[in-house]
Write a structure and sequence with these properties.
Helix content is 86%, strand content 0%. It contains 8 helices and no strands. α2 packs antiparallel against α7, α3 packs antiparallel against α4 and α5 runs parallel beside α8.
Length: 221
């Protein structure tokens, strides 16, 4: 890797350094985002089954503690539903939606930076190629048409290295952006699935108490 960086910096000319810097920035963003998205991963079916068991035993505080001990977008949605478990279905749904909406910007944060790297890479490469071409034309004007072709080798190499580096950077960044974006979409889908499941469970769990309260009011009347 060190040899590759040294070669690019020497053979790529002036625009090799911005391309290298851009690649480092893109790599850092990708690693940080990938780690963040992976950190909140849980086995949703197993986790929600545990929450249901605790809630079914009227151990709501323990269920909330379980969510707090496993921070992440999915547990935030479940926790929001539990905090409004004694409310109406509409209130539970609103709490779930609010929690989900607050998590989405956190999931998408800085992913646009990887897309920006992918967009800038080819332009920097083309700029490097353009400057190398201008250098060749300048030498032709200075030394005439009988200039030895070997004198162009360095500039031609610089132009090719610059273009290839920019395109390679853009390709890798596009793949990275696709991976991150796919992971975000998967988490958002999981939040919707988990939110629907926990809301349905809480509504069903509250039904017996609602029926008893209604019967008691009827007897009193």
């Amino acid at each position: 890797m060190q040899e590759y960086i040294q070669y690019i910096s020497e053979a790529g000319g002036l625009f090799a350094w911005p391309i290298l810097l851009l690649s480092i920035v893109g790599t850092v963003i990708f690693i940080e985002r990938f780690h963040y998205l992976h950190k909140g991963h849980i086995h949703k079916h197993k986790f929600i089954a545990g929450v249901k068991t605790l809630v079914g035993k009227d151990r709501l505080v323990e269920a909330l503690t379980l969510c707090e001990e496993s921070p992440g977008p999915l547990t935030s949605v479940i926790r929001a539903a539990l905090l409004h478990s004694d409310g109406s279905p509409g209130e539970i749904r609103q709490a779930i939606q609010a929690a989900g909406l607050s998590e989405v910007p956190l999931l998408e944060r800085r992913i646009g930076g990887v897309a920006l790297v992918a967009n800038l890479g080819p332009f920097l490469g083309l700029l490097g190629t353009g400057f190398a071409a201008l250098e060749i034309l300048s030498r032709l004007n200075a030394e005439g048409p009988y200039m030895n072709s070997s004198a162009f080798a360095g500039d031609m190499g610089q132009a090719l290295v610059s273009s290839v580096s920019g395109i390679l950077l853009a390709t890798i960044a596009l793949v990275g952006h696709h991976i991150l974006n796919g992971r975000v979409n998967a988490i958002v889908l999981d939040m919707e699935i988990v939110g629907t499941e926990i809301m349905q469970f809480l509504v069903d769990h509250n039904k017996p108490s609602d029926v008893i309260a209604h019967d008691s009011k009827g007897d009193a009347g």
